[in-house]
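Morning run. Coffee first, then this:
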Amino acid sequence: MPVKYLKVTFLFGITASLVMLSSIQNSASAKCSVDNKLCIMEELQETAKTIENKSWRDKTYRELAKSYTYEGYPDKAIALIDKIETPDTKAMTIRGIGFAAADSKWPTEKYAPLFEKLTAKADQIEHPPSQAIAYTYVAMAQAFAKDDVGAMATAKAMTNGALRHKAFAETAEIQAERGDFTAAFESIKQIDSEAFKNKAYSTVAKIFTKQGQLAEAYSAAQNITNTYNRTQILQQILNKGNPEEEMPSTSGN
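And here it is:
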C-alpha cells in the first residue's frame, strides 16, 4: 500500500476519533435540549443547591419560581418557597408566583387553588412584618387576576391595621390601573384611617386622570378630606389635555 495512502487513512482516523470524542464530551455536558425549559429549570434547581451564599441561593429560587409559574408548573414553584431561608425573600417569591400567574391569564377556576396555597405559605412565615407583606402581595395578585372577592378577603384577614390599610390601597391601585372604578372604590372604603384613605383616593385619582377617566378621577377627588390634596387633584384634572401644563417643569421650581 502506498505510503501516501497510509498517511491519509491515518489522519482521517485521528480526525474521526477527535470528532467522536468531542461529540461525546458535548453530550455529557449538555444535560438538556435548549427548547426543553422544564429540563433546564430542573437543572437550575439542582445547581442552586450548591450555592453557598444564602442570599444568592434564595434569590435564585425566587426567580426560578416565577419561571416555573410562567411555564405552567405552579406547584413546583410553590415547593421552592420551603427551600428559601430569608423571610422577606419568601414573601417576594409569593409575590412573584402570584403575579406571574395573573399575568399568564389563566382560566378563572385555576386561581382560587393557587391563592389558597400561597396564603398557606404566607401563614408559615414566622417573621410578622414579612408575613404581613406576603399577605399584601397575595391580595395584590388576586386583584391583578381580577379575583376582587378573594383580594378583599385576604386584606380583611390581616391583623396589622397599617399593613391592612396598605393592602387595600395597593389593591385599589391595581383595580384603578385596569380601569375598574367600582372595585377600586370598594377597596378604599374598607380603609378606616382617614390619612390612608385620603392617600388612596389621591393615588387612584391620579391613575384615572392619566388614563383619561376624568369623571372617575373627579369622583375620587370628592372623597379627599384634605383640602390641599383635593385641590392638587382637581388641578391635575384641569391640566389633562393642556400640553403646556402636562409638560414636565424645567424651571427647577
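Residues 37-146 form one domain. Good start to the day.
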